[in-house]
């Protein structure tokens, strides 16, 4: 019998195969600051459901140009206070002087939040090429250096298995990731990708470049395939042909679409875990169902159920 708990998963090659236990499997969940009363209610219901899966940490994004500065702060603090979660705040350099960005960091430290996902950010929509603020940080690495020199924060950064759209070339992009980690970041979180081989090749390239820190695999639940195709074109995430075939005919059939998306997310996660990628970062989009389905298929159970299952195992063994 396989022991499952909130901290231990299993990775069967196929569901009916003997599962290989993965004791150190870790998950983390990303959210965005809610908009409106409905968004607010949905977020907190989602957080409550996902908190039961004992994530290593959760994180909250920072709206373009700092548009959600206060909302990001309040959301991160509430996740920590109300749910006991290790909560990280995203922080970007866009449209802000260095002193203003660091003032945001100061406020986090004052509130007892000590994990920052340090990013450059994107120009506001339709804003064309990225132009740093005249008194701002030019690139994420500059923010990482400033946060590391300041001290008091665990720092995470972004990585791009399919290369950042504005990178000079793939090697320069990888050099930039190494520079961010060498400057003081303790982990990288990838942009989402759909083909697990993309991540595995990137991990090999990163290792060959001397990167030793964890690179968390960013997994995107497909809530709407049409929407994800548009979004992916902008951020450089490839949509494989097999995925187009997978959703062909399912786009207008909600139940089938949901089932396909749950299977896809779980298969990505299971394959990555089987390949030794034990840190999975889910872009939840503030919805729980698909992420929970993937966790469940990885053998990760909510805390209460896990405790009951663990308690039942000795009795079952004794009876057997
Ligand atoms: C996990 C994750 C979380 C994110 N969260 C947010 C969020 O909360 N809010 C938000 O607005 N955006 C977010 N983003 C998007 C991110 O801000 C954009 O992808 C942005 O365009 C790049 O940010 P970065 O931190 O990777 O930048 P950087 O690491 O600075 O890289 C940006 C580009 O500049 C290039 N570059 C770096 N140094 C140099 C140099 N010296 N000369 C020339 N080129 C250089 C890099 O190769 C890359 O192409 C997130 C992305 C990821 C993957």
UniProtKB/TrEMBL annotation:
Its cofactor is FAD. Its EC number is 1.5.1.54. The keyword Signal does not apply. It comes from the Bacteria. Pathway: Amino-acid biosynthesis; L-methionine biosynthesis via de novo pathway; One-carbon metabolism; tetrahydrofolate interconversion. Gene3D superfamilies: 3.20.20.220. Belongs to the methylenetetrahydrofolate reductase family. NCBIfam families: fadh2. This is Methylenetetrahydrofolate reductase. The lineage of its organism: Bacteria, Pseudomonadati, Pseudomonadota, Alphaproteobacteria, Geminicoccales.
């Amino acid at each position: 019998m396989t022991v499952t708990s909130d901290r231990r998963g299993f990775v069967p090659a196929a569901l009916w195969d003997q599962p290989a236990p993965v004791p150190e499997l870790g998950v983390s969940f990303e959210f965005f600051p809610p908009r409106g009363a409905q968004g607010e209610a949905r977020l907190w219901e989602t957080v409550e459901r996902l908190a039961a899966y004992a994530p290593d940490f959760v994180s909250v994004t920072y709206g373009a140009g700092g548009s959600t500065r206060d909302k990001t702060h309040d959301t991160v603090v509430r996740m920590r206070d109300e749910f006991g979660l290790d909560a990280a705040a995203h922080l970007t350099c866009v449209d802000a002087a260095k002193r203003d960005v660091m003032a945001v960091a100061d406020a986090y430290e004052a509130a007892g939040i000590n994990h920052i996902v340090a990013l450059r950010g994107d120009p506001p929509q339709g804003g064309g090429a990225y132009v740093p603020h005249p008194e701002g940080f030019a690139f994420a690495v500059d923010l990482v250096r400033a946060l590391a020199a300041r001290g008091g924060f665990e720092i995470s950064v972004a990585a791009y298995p399919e290369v950042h759209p504005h990178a000079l070339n793939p090697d320069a992009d990888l050099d930039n990731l190494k520079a961010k980690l060498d400057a003081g970041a303790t982990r990288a979180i990838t942009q989402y990708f759909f083909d697990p081989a993309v991540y595995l090749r990137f991990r090999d390239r990163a290792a060959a470049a001397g990167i030793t820190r964890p690179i968390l695999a960013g997994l995107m639940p497909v809530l709407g395939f049409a929407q994800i195709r548009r979004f992916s074109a902008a951020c450089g995430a490839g949509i494989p042909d097999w995925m187009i075939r997978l959703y062909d005919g399912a786009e207008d059939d909600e139940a089938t679409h949901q089932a396909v998306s749950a299977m896809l997310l779980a298969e990505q996660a299971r394959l990555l875990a089987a390949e030794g990628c034990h840190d999975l970062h889910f872009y939840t989009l503030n919805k729980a169902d698909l992420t929970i389905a993937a966790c469940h298929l990885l053998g990760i159970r909510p805390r209460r159920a896990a405790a009951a299952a663990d308690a039942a195992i000795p009795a079952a063994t004794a009876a057997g």
